[in-house]
Amino acid sequence: MQAQTYTRYERAKIIGARALQISMGAPLLITTTRIDPLEIAIEEYNNNTIPITVKRK
Description:
By secondary structure, the chain is mainly α. The chain has helices at residues 8-23, 37-46. The two termini are 19 Å apart.
């Protein structure tokens, strides 16, 4: 869910956290032929399907 523009650090944290979830067995949020958790997380991020938000002060 990309309601705001994320910095490159926030983007890296979101994708990294999602890749870790996928590697630990979390269900995929998209249909893909990819196997690598990082590539899947990037694809999910690009499709705006990752349910992670960033709180800023």
